[in-house]
Amino acid sequence: xxxxxxxxxxxxxxxxxxxxxxxxxxxxxxxxxxxxxxxxxxxxxxxxxxxxxxxxxxxxxxxxxxxxxxxxxxxxxxxxxxxxxxxxxxxxxxxxxxxxxxxxxxxxxxxxxxxxxxxxxxxxxxxxxxxxxxxxxxxxxxxxxxxxxxxxxxxxxxxxxxxxxxxxxxxxxxxxxxxxxxxxxxxxxxxxxxxxxxxxxxxxxxxxxxxxxxxxxxxxxxxxxxxxxxxxxxx
Length: 235
Known about the structure:
- 12% of the residues lie in helices and 29% in strands.
- By secondary structure, the chain is of the alpha+beta class.
């Protein structure tokens, strides 16, 4: 999911041909059906190699047609433009979608953390009912040695897992917290902190969970490597 400056979305935009000319990109072949001719602007640039451009596909500016300009390695590489054939729905920012939600470690987790069945509460602390807007309640946690530097997490999930559910003011949903297997590769026995993040909404739990890792617990969670068995006997 891409975050875009609201000011860019409110600009008038330009014709597609004029924009790609300024970006030194040549449009070749037929454009996808329904491609807007006007309203295009640069929405984001990543590492100077990929540029995202977009234009509203309806009068209200709720649906957008996007395109990627990819610049190859080397100054002489010709940039290429790829336009998406389908429009994408504009959504509020992560901050706005999160509303009054907050993360809280429940007492049952704090008093006896079970690294196999970690649970956390997603609470609606706001005054109004919270409604999901296509996000999930998938929460991942990063292991950090007490006093050390927090690491990132690798995560992956498929559509339909941990769907977000409506919450009235004061209600909460208790969900499972995942620790990806790569977290265990370089940990050692001793005190650690678990920092939880609700991935889709970019939310972080204010208080880390204190856990004590033992050699046995670490061995149980290390990725298992499956080595091939011996070759079959000769016939």
